[in-house]
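Input set for joint prediction.
Command: fold jointly, output tokens.
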Amino acid sequence: MDGLQKFIEKDSHEFPDWINHSRESSLKKYKEVCPKHLKNATWKNTKLNEMLNDFFEKEFSVQQSTLDNIDLKSNLDNSLTIYFHAGVFFTEEEIPSYIKLLNHKYLEENQSIFGLEDRSERQSIPYLLNNIVSRDALMIDTAVNQHVERLIHIVYLPNQNGNVAPRLNINVSGNSSIKIIEEHLQSKNSIINHCIDINCEATSTLEYYKVNHRQNDSYLISNLNLNQEEDTDVKIFNLDLGADSGSSLNHLKLNGENSNVACSTLFMPSDHRSSHQNVVIDHLSDKSSSSVNFRGVINNQATGSFFGKVRVAKERRGTSAFMQNKNLLLSDESKISTVPILEIYNDDTECSHSATSGSLDKEKLFYLKTRGINENDAKDFLIKSFIDELTSQIKSRRLRDYVNEIIAGNYKV
Amino acid sequence: MSNILSIKDLYVDVGDTSIVNGLNLKISSGETHAIMGPNGSGKSTLAKAIAGHPDYKIQSGKITYMGNDLSALSIEERSNLGVFLGFQYPIEIPGLSNTAFLKAAINAKRKYHGMDELSASEFLVDLKEKSKMMDIEQSFLSRGVNEGFSGGEKKRNEILQMLMLEPTLSILDETDSGLDIDSMKVVASGVNAFRSKKTASLIITHYERLLNYITPDYVHVFHDGAIIKTGDIQLAKDLEERGYEWLTNP
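tokens >
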């Protein structure tokens, strides 16, 4: 904790008072909640304590914008690409009116992005840490009735010895639509604490994708808060290839009638890495529906966990919720923990949940081998089929191919 | 006629239980053999032991397939050398399409025999023709292996795989179970199309009705893991009429 205090004091002269005030109050709150939160299901399997010890004991070199060796060409043609490096968002293109890069412009009008008071979920470990460390933010705010044709591709360039805390704020205005993919490239010896708030106004649609490449000796915390108003449709797909300690927290609030969210995640930690997945869905409106589908492929000595909770409030009627977690353990040393929970306080709802974990099915392997397919290829087929069942649900063909390509490049039996 | 399969004094255990107890059987090219017997008599155990299932342990005796000691061969080698097992309960593999699966299987066999991969067009022409013969809609082929297939569709898919892989020895484990009469006719037409002077079939069944469409050369009655009687199609008809009791508990 002292390290955090010193961190704040060290560069407080660079910031306006309201930022310093926000950082101080975040630290105060952090000291309050941390001991309690570290014991709960979200954090108990993570190496957060270890990370926090490392957090300021390690002397992180200041991240310079040395981008000479980095190819800034997006792998997704015709997308609008925004980069994040050394704590700053930037782009080589003309910025459209619906996107704002704060780039050290600490305007008081943007205080709400860093404020703690207006939302309870901001008083969580990742948000509080993000508030202390964050230097920059990206805001996307579509106009009413605007249907953004171009894919927004946000690329987090590789960090080395970096301590970065990107903050994003997305508002999808009434009757508008947008498609966004965030991609964290491979970092080394870094701490990445990524927080994103998304609000979807009435009759808007959003496709949101996130790819966390395999991180080396790094910690990666991803925190997503989504709020949906009536008649909204949101599709989320996450691919997480694991970090030294990787945690993903998703809090999805269905706050309007006929709001619908589908959230899928494929987590594939290998070697000594981990991937801890948390999702909480709050059905706060009538006729809201959610579908959660998380799959883990855990290899070598890696660890994975799934914690999912669906809450249906007492007065909410006509809701439907489906939650599934399936895990494949590929070695004797790999570990998984899964906790799916339904908290239903209303009879007029249709909810189901299931969780399975196990190694490759011996009977399926036998079947494939009886058709002449050798052991390695048979295993490959079964793993791929397990993955494809999930990735085949990605709506955009282009992004489906992109995600499958990343998986293929990062995985081998 | 050449010898395809020779089983000599075979004992097979599953776990601590001995299921096949001193079985002897010879199958030559061009022949179709039927094995009939009550539940638990060891019919499926024999099929899985020939295919090489790791849970079915050969305790003693020998299975020779076209001059090869089968126990020395891996499961996939047995397949690549021409042994096909049609499953009683075909496995579902969602996410792996029937087409991709069949192509991989055919090319695995070709690679084993030092042949080039089958071209996409040759494969598709063959697949289209044989799936039509088995009354399998084209749309089914892009679905996961057996995913959401009815019982009859699964069995027809097994026979389609057999026709595509062109094995030498086909072992069909209760392929008729769960089939309606129309599906049974389709399955039988596939099996009859496979029959030739160079191939052989071993058909495992409970009932005589499949044998009305596929006439076997030999009918064997299985009991307690061994053949207790061998005859021709008339034996199957007798069993249909009289049950197994007169043979198993005379």
